[in-house]
Automatic annotation (TrEMBL):
InterPro entries: NusB-like_sf, NusB_fam, NusB_RsmB_TIM44
UniProt superkingdom: Bacteria
Protein name: Transcription antitermination protein NusB
Family the UniProt entry places it in: Belongs to the NusB family.
Function: Involved in transcription antitermination. Required for transcription of ribosomal RNA (rRNA) genes. Binds specifically to the boxA antiterminator sequence of the ribosomal RNA (rrn) operons.
Gene name, Swiss-Prot/TrEMBL: nusB
Pfam family, one: NusB
PANTHER family: ANTITERMINATION NUSB DOMAIN-CONTAINING PROTEIN, N UTILIZATION SUBSTANCE PROTEIN B-RELATED
SUPFAM superfamilies: NusB-like
Signal sequence region: none
Originating organism: Staphylococcus marylandisciuri
Amino acid sequence: MSRKESRIQAFQTLFQLEVENTDLTINEAIDFIKDENTEVDFDFIHWLVTGVKDHESVLDNNIKPHLKDWTLERLLKTDRIILRMSTFELLNGETPPKVVINEAVELAKQFSDENHHKFINGVLSNIK
């Protein structure tokens, strides 16, 4: 089971929950990806998605001081989700910080605007 692919699926689940603004529960949102993916760790995805949704205000309070002339509201949704997800993992996970930050940078390269990965890297490096 690939943690990298699991992080991508967790990101996409969080994005779906935020963008579609539906009444989907976390479990329902994760169930959508279960049929399509067999190579991911659903326990890890559930932990990340639930952790981000349950601790959003705490995560935001950890992120805000490191934004330098930005607000969370001004960030792209993709960047905000990547920062929340990675901050949750930095604060609560067992994965080495360097790996968490590298995975966040890769997510930003794949899903965010050009060069936003540098911003993500800087913010997370300061949080760590």
